[in-house]
Amino acid sequence: MRIGLVTEGGYPYVSGDARHWCDRLVCGLGQHEFDIYALSRSRQQEDEGWVQLPPQVGRVRTAPLWAAEDDIWRGGPRGLVGRVVAGDGWVHGRRARRRFAECYGELAAVLCAASSVDLGDSVGRGGSDDEADRFGSALYGLAELARDAGGLVDALRSEPAVRALERACRAPGALRSAREARVPDLLAVAAHLERALRPLSLDWYDDGGLGAADVCHAAAGGTAALPGLLARHFSGVPLLVTEYGVQLRSHYLASGADGTAPAVRALLAAFHGRLAAEVYRRAAVVTHGNAHARRWQERCGADRAKLRTVHPGMDASPFAELGESPEAADPNTLVWVGRVEPAKDLVSLLHAFAEIRKSKPAARLRIVGAGTGPDGAAYLGHCRALAAQLFPDEAEGLHAVGDNPVSFEEIGDPEVPTLPEAYASGAVIVLSSVVEGFPIGLVEAMFCGRATVSTDVGAVVEVIGGTGLVVPPRNPRALAEGCVALLHDPERRARLGAAARARALELFTVEQNITAFHGIYLEIVSHCPVRRVVLDDTGEPLPFATPAEAHVPGRWAVPGARVVARGGPGWATGAPARSTAPMTATEAAR
After folding, report:
1. Which of 125, 124, 6 is nearest to 61 (CA)?
2. 438-473, pLDDT tens digit by residue?
């Protein structure tokens, strides 16, 4: 089958989100054809280039979400140019301008409704049917106008758009924070909506693009899933959405930390919430990587019958040899591995280690950084200063040089040249985070057969599954007690490490991930009508490429779907069927 894989800020670029699992998925399913539709986030990302693409990738179409000049859409050596449909992105003609005002005004009115951003009630979990229909009608109305008018890139950031937002904010019944929006707030909201709705103006949805796919697979929710929604709307392509990090949750965390004005935060939260609800409503299947993400999806309106758990697939081979020789670890060493940032709460870890040293004076702590976050450098400096204060350099005698029991290192240093060797150096691996999604570092430690002590955040409990110790976050004493218990009991460490490795190899490998998605692809196609006829090099239909039931209306057809969307015989297209009885032998021979 042909899969249209839609990504945002990731694959096929060498940097960005979701590039690893997308690459493993595409490489592991060589029996399928893949077309990649990539939305890039920066010029730097585009300039860094693509990963090596396997032969099953037929074409790549790209479009930027960052460009100031919206008529510049970059492609690649194997790709077709992603661009605005045609024209200058402005709405010409009185009727078209009226349509735009109606659709955009309706979209703004739904976003400003007082119920749009309250995730604590049933409305927040997707809204009432009426409001969901209003949002969908406005969204698809803008999409149809973009296709007819040649794009909306200028119209979405025009003065009429800002005025429509202002009228919606001042309307009776509008959200209180929206009524307080000023002109700079409205301009910020309009600019954000233009970027988020930029896929409306792409030329990806005809029979030469996503319209020809058997399944559209969006590698994330939000803007990344919008092309899939449009392919479903215009061509009936079934949509599969995978969220290893829920976009709506990420938006809430980001908007709450960057000092965004309350009016802007409320309106953007309403938009992302409505878009998430529409994606979940229209998708054939929605997958997640853990129960934490599943709860977010259900809260935002996802139907439980559509949800599937597909754990992220990770390559276990680099850790295989280490997992088979756990005796190589230093029995007195604790190891922390991860991205250095405040959410990892290294401060609590250092205070916990001070308690550990009281019971285990020979204990050592290695903090191995695998990159830094936006505030990582300053946070790392703070942690170094705290470690120097808590643990002054210790010397065994009067004439010996002191040594600090806490070391700060990075992957690639002479002592830890690779990630597996970082895990190999410790008897216990520690995770001290206060915020965590899917704990990749914890799974890597499990592959290595190491016992772990982790805080109860995100999907940690689901990943560990009883093969490690879990303690409350922001509790140095509990973290210290767990570490001391394992440092004093080597047999228990060995049992937990072996159980953790077996669990990781069963649930979190690339192979199980690929197998799960292959089954979901087949499940989706089995419930959707055949929409195209496969032709050979001469333009003739391939034998048995289209099953016989595709030409006959019956109960397997989706309500409202055409019997044959294109390429079928004339009697089967356009005209309503006169009978649902099976064909006679004479009719079949024709």
Report:
1. 6
2. 899 999 999 999 999 999 998 999 999 999 999 999
pTM for the whole structure: 0.80
N residues, the chain = 590
In this predicted model, what pLDDT tens digit does every residue of 121-170 receive, in sequence order?
433 444 567 888 999 999 999 999 999 888 888 889 889 999 999 999 99
Residue 216 and residue 237 in contact, taking contact as beta carbons nearer than 8 Å: yes
Q: Do 132 and 281 touch, CB atoms closer than 8 A?
A: yes
Q: What is the DSSP string of 277-324?
A: HHHHHH-SEEEESSHHHHHHHHHTT--GGGEEE-PPPB--HHHHHHHT
Q: Are 451 and 496 in contact (CB under 8 A)?
A: yes
Q: Give the 3-state secondary structure of 220-271.
A: CCHHHHHHHHHHHHHHCCCEEEEECCCHHHHHHHHHHHCCCCHHHHHHHHHH
What is the 3 state secondary structure string of 159-198?
A: HHHHHHHHHHHHCCCECHHHHCCCHHHHHHHHHHHHHHCH
Question: Cβ(35)–Cβ(4) under 8 Å?
Answer: yes
The three-point CA angle 58-64-70 to 5° equals 125
- Contact between residue 103 and residue 92 where contact means Cβ atoms under 8 Å apart: no
| CA dist., res. 426 & res. 570, Å (int) | 70
Residue 282 burial (CB < 10 Å; 0-12/13-18/19+)?
middle
Q: Of 67, 41, 63, 71, which Cα lies nearest the Cα of 154? A: 71
Which of 442, 451, 428 has its CA nearest to residue 334? Answer: 428
* Beta strands in 49-105, from DSSP E residues, in sequence order: 57-64, 79-81
Asked if residue 12 has a cis previous peptide bond (ω within 30° of 0), the answer is yes
Residues 145, 297: contact at Cβ < 8 Å?
Answer: no
Q: Residues with Cβ < 8 Å from 316, sequence gap 6 or more?
A: 447, 504, 505, 508, 509, 510
């032998």: which residue's tokens? 585
* Strand (E) or helix (H) holding 19: helix 19-28
Q: What are the residues whose beta carbons fall under 8 Å from the beta carbon of 71, sequence distance 6 or more?
A: 83, 84, 88, 89, 153
